[in-house]
Amino acid sequence: MAVSSSPEIRVRRPNVWQQLNQVSWAWRITVVYLSIMLLIPTAAMLLRASTDGPVRFWQVATSPIALSAYEVTFVTAFIASAINGVFGTLLAWVLVRYDFPFKRIVDAIVDLPFALPTAVAGLTLATVYSDNGWIGSLLAPLGIKIAFTRLGVGVAMTFISLPFVVRTVQPVLQEMEKDVEESAWSLGASQFQTFWRVILPPLMPAILTGVALGFSRAVGEYGSTVLVAANMPFQDLIAPVLVFQRLEQYDYSGATAIGTVMLAISLGILLGINLLQAWGRRYDYK
């Protein structure tokens, strides 16, 4: 009896259009939203920055005034975020571990830099820290001038980046079990050893993430710093103000060139934040 061979079955692979139709609506809306809000504006800025060619881009991006503005912006933002890393963690610790009158009000005040318009914040800081202000008048006899100097830029960056550290560290402290600290004390560890070896390691990723977020926010700050600084080149001129000055001179390609450099540095910071979060997730499985 002859056995007939089975017919060859050909499976047609779906084309690209059919594959796109199989993508869920959540993915489609996400891609469209990200394209409109992030990718297209970023691509437009890069194209605008490249209109005058790479030589002109390099000249603008590495001009002495631009390099000085980068140095003022990023170094001051780093110092401000580092200060908030210490005092923001201390503030989060007090809010989580202690009960005191008006605690909820103090907790809400931490978010004030989020809600306050940056121009109003700059005007307030310039008033308080000027030579005739409440704090500036106390420091002026000592020869310390804050408003309309680089120190004023640092104060403004510290003010607007404080909530990022507090709100990042606070949930981690709330979830941290008190039994672990008590176990360390029962084994003979001092309070400093308990903080250094038990509390700080799982807390450090949240602190670094808050510092990085605050640093990113401080780098892009414009409204408050422009009012509390004198905006003098090679002294306290920050990069966002330099970008605005280029726009006032109708030098759009120069403004976008400086913005592109800031964008590249910001992307590096975001990559660092993701690496910190991945590092912090190691403690979730322990």
Automatic annotation (TrEMBL):
It is a multi-pass membrane protein. GO terms for molecular function: ABC-type sulfate transporter activity. Gene3D superfamilies: MetI-like (1.10.3720.10). Keywords: Cell inner membrane, Cell membrane, Membrane, Sulfate transport, Transmembrane, Transmembrane helix, Transport. Coiled coil: none annotated. It is found in: Cell inner membrane. One of its GO terms (cellular component) is plasma membrane. Pfam families: BPD_transp_1. Residues 70-273 form the ABC transmembrane type-1 domain. CDD domains: TM_PBP2. The chain crosses the membrane at residues 25-47, 68-96, 142-166, 195-215, 222-243, 255-276. SUPFAM superfamilies: MetI-like. Belongs to the binding-protein-dependent transport system permease family. CysTW subfamily. Part of the ABC transporter complex CysAWTP (TC 3.A.1.6.1) involved in sulfate/thiosulfate import. Probably responsible for the translocation of the substrate across the membrane. Part of the ABC transporter complex (TC 3.A.1.6.1) involved in sulfate/thiosulfate import. NCBIfam families: 3a0106s02, permease_CysT. PANTHER family: SULFATE TRANSPORT SYSTEM PERMEASE PROTEIN, SULFATE TRANSPORT SYSTEM PERMEASE PROTEIN CYST. The complex is composed of two ATP-binding proteins (CysA), two transmembrane proteins (CysT and CysW) and a solute-binding protein (CysP). This is Sulfate transport system permease protein CysT. It comes from Desertifilum tharense IPPAS B-1220.
